[in-house]
Amino acid sequence: xxxxxxxxxxxxxxxxxxxxxxxxxxxxxxxxxxxxxxxxxxxxxxxxxxxxxxxxxxxxxxxxxxxxxxxxxxxxxxxxxxxxxxxxxxxxxxxxxxxxxxxxxxxxxxxxxxxxxxxxxxxxxxxxxxxxxxxxxxxxxxxxxxxxxxxxxxxxxxxxxxxxxxxxxxxxxxxxxxxxxxxxxxxxxxxxxxxxxxxxxxxxxxxxxxxxxxxxxxxxxxxxxxxxxxxxxxxxxxxxxxxxxxxxxxxxxxxxxxxxxxxxxxxxxxxxxxxxxxxxxxxxxxxxxxxxxxxxxxxxxxxxxxxxxxxxxxxxxxxxxxxxxxxxxxx
Amino acid sequence: xxxxxxxxxxxxxxxxxxxxxxxxxxxxxxxxxxxxxxxxxxxxxxxxxxxxxxxxxxxxxxxxxxxxxxxxxxxxxxxxxxxxxxxxxxxxxxxxxxxxxxxxxxxxxxxxxxxxxxxxxxxxxxxxxxxxxxxxxxxxxxxxxxxxxxxxxxxxxxxxxxxxxxxxxxxxxxxxxxxxxxxxxxxxxxxxxxxxxxxxxxxxxxxxxxxxxxxxxxxxxxxxxxxxxxxxxxxxxxxxxxxxxxxxxxxxxxxxxxxxxxxxxxxxxxxxxxxxxxxxxxxxxxxxxxxxxxxxxxxxxxxxxxxxxxxxxxxxxxxxxxxxxxxxxxx
DNA sequence: TTGAAAGCGCTAACAG
DNA sequence: CTGTTAGCGCTTTCAA
Lengths: 331, 331
Description:
The structure is a homodimer.
Chain A: H1 5-12, H2 16-23, H3 31-44, H4 50-57, E1 62-67, H5 74-88, E2 92-97, H6 102-114, E3 119-123, H7 129-138, E4 142-145, E5 156-159, H8 161-174, E6 180-184, H9 194-206, E7 216-218, H10 224-237, E8 243-246, H11 249-262, E9 271-276, E10 289-292, H12 295-312, E11 319-321, E12 324-326
Helix pairs in contact in A: 1-2, 1-3, 5-12, 6-7, 8-9, 10-11
Chain A binds a DNA duplex through residues 4-6, 14-18, 20-21, 23-24, 27-30, 33, 48-49, 51-58.
């Protein structure tokens, strides 16, 4: 398994150039030599060395993906789509876990640069200037997944968070709810936090419903615990609410759990709608109604865009992916 | 960012050999030249080309990880540990999603071989002869994660499934339960299916409790749906049970959900214990008692073992990781 | 302490 | 149709 092109050439009585041509499906050899060479390759079990190829072709057929968090199920869904699309293009994917840590991120970027990867997918986090500048210098294409940059011209794929939040709230309103609260994620999160709050507020005002500050709970993050604390606070400061829009499924499940503890019946006493439609949404009791993002497709799309950029050398258009309410039994 | 060692050498008025020595922390240069070269490197932002290095050093500082499934949360946990340990060693990890598909797996193995990765972690699936033979030919070390081979001498890291299942059942017995059922995963799964059933049976008989065929539900897999169907079947064929040991948390959550639907109160009417202690275990209502595997640590351990094999050229001992009952409120 | 030169495995002109 | 040769960017003898 450690035969080189030389071994093949020698054994087949041809030059290495000929072997190279045949291996790369080029032209310039007779059917006969092709057969002979292919036989030898088969016999030796020769596998071209991608490292050597990468050195000369300046293409490693490898892309890098940066994730701020590894917990949570968003990651696997994204990764699944990314990996699928990459594999279809004959490329591999290197995963990097940045922990939202600037220093770590830069080290990863440097590592990816040394490895001469062909492109980068940057996910779920704001693209800092430092990152952008570095990647720009690397001269490899990049696409943003589930995030976007308001300042740099980098193509992204994500859903429209404001719009999705609007839809969720609107859905609650259509079901007859008027006193609708929101347990938001981090409101300082310019990508996933603020827009969802805005969507909620827009939907309320567009429907002539009052927006009460007491009805909006700002959490630190999008986690389960934020949901349980959020619902508790909500019940204290706004006991009259009949429905809540949670900024993530984890928050929703947390709220569900707290409601159960408090003896509040869902959906009879209180309706809850989540956001993300993770697999846990269908596992909760009652099953959670949620606004779905097509996570795997988003990963796939981002990867395809990346490959298009690699091939054309041009940038591509960003994609807003469709969201969709998945009705289950929590509303 | 595309400067080469030559550029550095020229600008610093030294030979490329000297630059190489300095970059690699070797000896054989004056403090003065070192300073000069380092300055130039800094100025140019020179990054050594890992591809060229890989070609000559025969080490790519990249490992490959094969996962049969990408859904589920086991993956992220494992990956998180693997990625952490690999990163500490200055290596990257390429993820491969085999879908338990033999053909796909072989293609991945081939790809990894062409890329000349330094080692392989093979997870959660039985190591087929074909895979083993190929990897052996690749001459790279491999370790098994959350699986083991009864026929090939490949080091693995996993918990003792039989023992863990025994512990879970024993725990139920200690809590005073006698009529204990099990909703198993796939009983033909020689790694994660059968051993857990055996552990359950052993614990029952060791405690003088009868093992009733009706008390064992064999599912197709370890998924949520298997749990809901499992509990339903169980209630039909063995209504008297007071506790159930589920072969996975997803099954347990499914059972929990069905119980809720059926008006069975957990833990009052029925106790349920899960297996894996995934993050969903603490999100259920009531929170699920579960036997925990240290997933991230297992990934980390497997990776460390892999690196040890790479360094020493020798095989290493397999590791049985400790399991542990996490008490919550479903028992 | 330094440099020249060979070569890792491969591709791509350039000849023939 | 086929072979020779010059690198890709780097490490590593071998001399100086």
